[in-house]
Every structure is written in structure tokens, then in C-alpha cells.
Amino acid sequence: MEPPPGAAENSKLRHVEKDVLIPVIMRDRAKELCSDKVQAFTKCCKETGFLMVVKCRKENTALKDCLVGYYSDPSFYEECKTEYLKQREEYRATGIKKKKQKITSNI
């Protein structure tokens, strides 16, 4: 079976899509997936104030490790790329931009 006309064109990514738009989706999804660590770090920062640099190292390291684990996972990138391509295809078909869900966290 032959792919629909323009299918190859639809899967090509521009520089800004690869280097900016998909990483934004990755960052947002990783924050959701690491939400327990985000909350722990946020709580620690609120409780310690100016000493957070010293006092919250453990929470910061746990958060960073969690986020970097997702950022460096090729399959996670592919998931986010697929999600982006779906959003782009929907936008091109309807002209309606998908509203971004606001994640309420203090980072």
C-alpha cells in the first residue's frame, strides 16, 4: 500500500521543531512524570529560603537525575515527536491550535 500524497513531507521536521518545539513537549512531560521530585524540591526550597542551595542538594539531584533520564531516552524523544506530529497534523487540518495545559508548579 502506498503512503498518502504528502506523507513524507508531513513527517519532515524543521530545525525549530527538532530543537525547540519537541524539547518543550519533552520538558513538560518529564516534569509531569517527575512530579513527586518536583514537589519535594519545591517544598524544600520554600522551607529553607536562602539556604536552599546547600540544604536542598539531595532533592535537586533527585529531580535532575529524573529529568535527565527522560531527556536522554531516545524512545521518550520519539514518543514526544509522535505527539508533536499529531498536534501539527491536527492544526494543519483544522487551523485550530491545541491549548497548552498549564501545569501548576513553582519551578
From TrEMBL:
Stored InterPro entries: Cyt_c_biogenesis_Cmc1-like
Record's GO cellular component terms: mitochondrion
Keyword tags: Disulfide bond, Mitochondrion
Coiled coil: none
Family the entry assigns: Belongs to the CMC family.
Localization (cell): Mitochondrion
Protein name: COX assembly mitochondrial protein
Statement: the UniProt record of this protein carries the keyword Disulfide bond: yes
Main location: mitochondrion
